[in-house]
Amino acid sequence: MNGVQIAGGVVAAVVILVGALTSRSSVKSAVGPRERAFVRRVCAATWTLIAAFVLTAWYVPSPANWVVAAGFVVGIPWAVYRWTTQRQLIRELDLRETHAREHADAARSARTT
Predict the structure, then answer these.
(1) How far from the centroid of its chain's Cα atoms is residue 75's Cα?
(2) What is the rounded distance in angstroms from the CA atom of residue 14 to the CA atom of residue 47?
(3) Would you give per-residue pLDDT tens digits along the chain (113 residues)?
(4) DSSP letter string, 63-77
């Protein structure tokens, strides 16, 4: 192994470690069980897409892997935007359901007293 391969391996290890910590942090910061499940699915999908991109870059010949790279550069930001919006909607829905439940419980306890 030469120095470039060792440096590449170190960089890849650091990127994987940072990605794993980011995924863990995202799951921990999820508010409810619905949002947590959604974040887990998104993290799994993102890791799958990244692995597919890396494998494609390695094994597909040169002109075709540029098309895949262009799709990745356009597709990932679009997917992140869409998933972020969807996560915000899930969080808002959970918040509204929690408030509705609290309001119903307060009305029920006010009626019984």
Answers:
(1) 14
(2) 15
(3) 788 889 988 998 999 999 999 999 999 999 889 999 999 999 999 999 889 888 888 888 888 888 888 888 999 899 999 999 999 999 999 999 988 988 888 888 887 76
(4) HHHHHHHHHHHHHHH
Q: Are the C-beta atoms of residues 87 and 26 closer than 8 Å to each other?
A: no
Structure tokens at 27: 């799951």
Euclidean distance between CA atoms 74 and 41, whole angstroms: 21
Greatest C-alpha distance within the chain: 79
What 3-state class would DSSP assign to 30? coil
SS3 31: coil
Contact predicate 26/39, CB 8 Å: yes
The token duo for 19 is 């990605």
Q: Where are the domains of the chain?
A: 3-112
Nearest C-alpha neighbor of 86 from the set 30, 8, 13: 30
